[in-house]
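Let us practice reading a record.
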Amino acid sequence: MLWPACCFSTLSLIAFMKIVDTHQHLWDLDKFSYSWTKGNATLNRSFRLTDYREATKGLDIDKTVFLECDVDEQFQVDEAKYICSLAEKKENKLAGVVASARPEKPGFEEYLKKIVHPNLKGIRRILHVVPDDTVDTPGFIANVNKLASYHLSFDICVLARQLPIAIRLIKECPNVQFVLDHCGNPRIMEREFSPWSDRIAEVASYPNVVGKISGIVTNAEPKKWTPADLKPYVDHMIKSFGWNRVMFGSDWPVCLLNGTLKHWADALKVITKDAGEANQRKLFHDNAVRVYRLG
């Protein structure tokens, strides 16, 4: 992927900015099974901390937040406990864990009690891999509401067309901290801006939601995208949420489907270069520390 040299002319201004990566995946196929990776030549292998360190060489990664990887259900508890054990070692820089969960199933609170840990910061149920009416399952919304008493957030991962589902969930759980993953997955390759833009503005109107600027390179034109292709979507996220409610996430290693972690981080630096160092620091570091309670 080649970009014009002018794209990077300002990167040196923030080359040493500390970064909190709020969307780091890790999976070890020798430990757990991830059926969704089968048949995917890029992702059907283990991605461990050593691989992440290699992928982030040259970036000043201060802390990371692990995001669950849609592990096969029978391994949910074991994955959560394993990643939380990795987070106990300061040298791993893994300061927070967002674990997999199934709010639509009985026993949700008992499951939470099994995985509770000082480094557990939230849970996620990927909603674009299940029927749209999953949130209508008896108990789903009640279970999500329980997260507030555990001081846990809920990462929302939906397709652009499913944003009305996200809005309903946010509205019915006013005491829960939500994080909208991947900018709500806009259809960038198709250059579709509306109705995504109006729905993002509505999501952002609720004060208990933060927008995660992550994962959008996989929605862009394969191997040909540039920062300019992503800029309208990033700009709209920042306009809607404001600089105090946006966070950077790499979505590594899924981002490898259409670039590298450094390509994405550099592109976001370029897109936000005119905002000033203070705002970029909020995006790349400070907001994540506050929202995910990283200390």
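A brief commentary: DSSP finds nine helices and eight strands in the chain.
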